[in-house]
Amino acid sequence: MLNLTNLVKEYKQTKNKQIIEQIYAELKVTVQQKAKFIYYHKWYPMNLYHPCKYCRNCNKLNDIPKSEYSIICKECNICKCIKGFFNLKKDNLCEYQDVENDIWLEILRNINNFDITKDFNTYLFSCLWEFIPSFITKDFIKSLSHKSLIQEDEEGNETQIDIPEEQEETKPKPSIQEILKVCKTDIERKVCKLLLESPNLSQEELAEKLGTYQMDISRIINKLRKRLKKFV
Questions:
Q1: Distance CA 196, CA 221 (A)
Q2: Where are the domains of the chain?
């Protein structure tokens, strides 16, 4: 990736889409490794967006390795926050491709914000070091109350975390007309129609059919998902 900084500088000056494809090729393996770690191996605390004053002021965690935090916190009877951990793959919370797409969108944001007088490699990896997918929000964490989660300890043993469900109204499935109404451009409508006809089409296949790039398709699908949330 010795030429990555130069590629980013050239793209920011020319906005040439072919350069983005070159950057995509340079970072493909790195993104896949990061996405696989986040999707298959990383555990997130349930209180990620529920900071608790008891946790913040807890003296029990002083001089204790971070690897033992979960053990101490699980046994705590004082804490008022949501306990437990979740894993995106084991708890069936999303698809692997969702994570990879989100990393690519973060990289595009980093490219747009990049100061061309700096080194892009250093800038990018510092931004991705503690990367959390953008869809892990307060609402996402709240939705976990409708699932039975599985936690894995350091020895690889799995235990189930049962969280009581809240009653929620089920919404009717949207019609094709309602789905197409959220499309704002012609290419968005084409992507929607192709996916409705063939749900298993990959982003690469969609890009080939529409004569565009995979990263363009990724951005379009991400926008459509956000607009379709009202139907979920």
A1: 13
A2: 4-165, 169-232
Instruction: Over range 48-53, report the average pLDDT.
Output: 66
What are the φ/ψ torsions at residue 76 (nearest 5 degrees)?
A: -75, 130
Closest CA to 188 of 167, 208, 210, 168: 210
Cβ–Cβ under 8 Å, residues 218 and 203: yes
Q: What is the pLDDT of residue 120?
A: 86
Whole-number Å distance between alpha carbons of 70 and 230: 35
Distance between CA atoms of residues 180 and 228, nearest Å: 10
Can you tell me the mean pLDDT for 157-185? 61
Bigger pLDDT: 150 vs 72: 72
Helix, strand or coil for residue 171?
Answer: coil
Is 169-232 assigned to CATH 3.40.50.10610?
no
Closest CA to 136 of 144, 128, 145: 144
| Residue-level length of the chain | 232
Handedness of CA 205, 210, 214, 216 (dihedral sign): negative
